[in-house]
Amino acid sequence: MALPAWLTSRKRSATARSVLAGEAAAEAARKQEQEAAARAAEREGHEAAEEAEFPVVGDVRGAAFFDLDNTVMQGAALFHFGRGLYKRKFFRKRELTRFAWQQAYFRLAGSENADHMQDARESALSIVKGHRVHELMAIGEEIYDEYMAGRIWPGTRALAQAHLDAGQKVWLVTAAPVETATIIARRLGLTGALGTVAESVGGIYTGRLVGEPLHGPAKAEAVRALAAAEGLALERCAAYSDSANDIPMLSLVGHPYAINPDSRLRAHAREMGWRLRDYRTGRKAAKVGIPAAAGVGALAGGAAAAVAVQRRRR
Fold it and tell me: Is residue 262 flagged as an active site residue?
């Protein structure tokens, strides 16, 4: 896919494929935002134009970036998507067993395994090859309702809403397919999503990726590229993740948060003085000093306070 002039590669610590994956994800996210804005303007007509004259409250040069799997949603979006495709007879029971085993490992370990995630991605690419993009998007809407909607962490959702209420844009940043991530972001009322971009020609998936999966350093590259395009100041931005694999993305912003952290990220966050939140069990919450009985309202209030602190530090 052709990339616009503002996506220029430069020497970075990430690999060339990470840069390509990040830039492709950023371009896809920008396209989503532009299309959503066009649809909103068409629906609202003159009323939308009148409202646009009013200034946005909050720091418009700040934004929030949320990892998806085990940060916003319990489990991995790719595995839930695979379950939905199996239900629709896209593949056989043997492949579903592999998806289920990987999901069980993910839930028990609470962290990503590179080999498992790579295997899942390759399986997904082979399954969607030859299918039309719009067909998978329509199915993805149904799968969200069936397998994902009930697995959103209320605490993390409240954090995202606090940024939106402050007038900031909020993006998901995930190794999941950008189409799946876009559906989830829209359903949650977020700005958009940065995700792995699968190649398509004439609206049909080829079974190949653009660059590499949006994972690890590639996520940081995507955030960096989108921030440049949007005119964001990264030191004013926040990022949230559960995985040590996302330390490059978390280190890129001025306000990093460890959400439901794995052991490596928890240790790193404590060493760096990053904020911690755990929305899993009372036992795990106690380990990081978060009141297990805290309600969603209190969490939202705390998130709003965090945004206010960011404003005062500008």
Answer: no
27-31: list long-range contacts, CB under 8 Å, 24+ apart: 27/1, 27/3, 27/225, 28/178, 28/194, 28/195, 28/197, 29/171, 29/178, 29/192, 29/193, 29/194, 29/222, 29/226, 30/226, 30/229, 30/230
* Alpha-carbon span 92 to 123, nearest angstrom: 12
Is 24 strand, coil or helix? helix
pLDDT of residue 113: 56
| CA 201 – CA 311 distance, rounded (Å) | 44
Tell me how far apart the terminal alpha carbons of the chain are, to the nearest angstrom.
Answer: 38
Confidence grade of residue 20 (pLDDT, cut at 50, 70, 90): confident
Cα-based distances in Å from 107 to 69, 103, 114, 239, 248: 10, 6, 15, 22, 23
Sequence length of the chain is 314
Candidates 69, 242, 262, 278; catalytic one: 69
The CB density around residue 8, as the number of other CB atoms within 10 Å, is 10
SS3 call for 135: helix
Write the CA distances from 74 to 156, 209, 240, integer angstroms. 11, 25, 15
DSSP string, 89-124: TSS-HHHHHHHHHHHHHHHHH-S--HHHHHHHHHHH
Catalytic residue among 59, 67, 246, 278: 67
Separation between Cα atoms, residue 23 and residue 69, nearest integer Å: 21
Q: Give the whole-angstrom CA distance, residue 156 versus residue 27.
A: 26
> Model confidence over 73-123: pLDDT tens digits?
998 898 888 888 888 888 766 665 655 555 555 444 545 555 555 555 566
pTM over 0.85: no
pLDDT for residue 12: 45
User: Which DSSP category does 56 fall into?
Assistant: P
On whether the 16-38+59-74+153-313 domain is CATH 3.40.50.1000, my answer is yes
Query: Is 278 among the residues known to form the active site?
Result: no
Which tokens belong to 8?
A: 């220029």
